[in-house]
Amino acid sequence: MSETAKSKPRFPIVLTIATLIAFAILCGLGTWQVKRLAWKEDLLARIETLKTVPAIPLAQALTRADKGEDVAWTRVETGCRPVAPGASFPLVYGVRDGQMVWRPQIICGSDHGPIIVDLGVAEGLTGQVQPDRHGVFGYPSRVTGVLVTTDQLGGKEREGLLTDEAGKSPKYVLMAEATTPALPRVTPAPLPAEISNRHLEYALTWFGLAVTLLFIYAAMLWRRMRP
């Protein structure tokens, strides 16, 4: 009887705990991708709406933002008073259509206070690694564009943002669609040329891995515990 007891396989407690932890992580990643899917679908719907919605005054949009409303991806228009005429403003690194581009920014005085305006893509600098990082591109008298939050910008573009008079990074940036007058050497590019939405694919991958893990664990447990 004692020999039989000794030969009986032990239940793999440590392996079971490790499997449960891994299963929970995989399911968590899958759930996160499902949430990202809902966010991306809402974002794509907003961008699609932007193609036909009329612009509203910038001051009106920012007043709504001050009250806590999310005004990201809102088309706005505003007058642009030169804050620093003739000043040299930075070029911010970005990626568009798979290529390195450089985007000039200026600070416009508006009825709601100064706002950073991304003018678009600087012509002739696409693909350059180390261009002159500052340039004078002029001031438009009026800008129509799309408000985006700085969180929605790429990391390098967010790091290179101008700061306001208090030295703080802004919450919103106006991505110019059109300027009056049109500025030379700049092509407005407010929206990504293409936004991928593969979150459903990623979610199914994570959930599939979680199920596969359970099958592997069950098969291992059956082989180990069978008489």
TrEMBL record:
Does this entry carry the keyword RNA-binding? no
TM annotation in the entry: 12-32, 202-222
GO CC list:
plasma membrane
Its membrane topology, per UniProt?
Multi-pass membrane protein
Indicate where this protein resides in the cell.
Cell membrane
Q: Which InterPro entries match?
A: Surf1/Shy1
- Statement: the UniProt record of this protein carries the keyword Isomerase: no
What's the domain of life for this entry? Bacteria
Q: Which UniProt keywords apply?
A: Cell membrane, Membrane, Transmembrane, Transmembrane helix
Family per similarity comment: Belongs to the SURF1 family.
In its UniProt entry, what is this protein called? SURF1-like protein
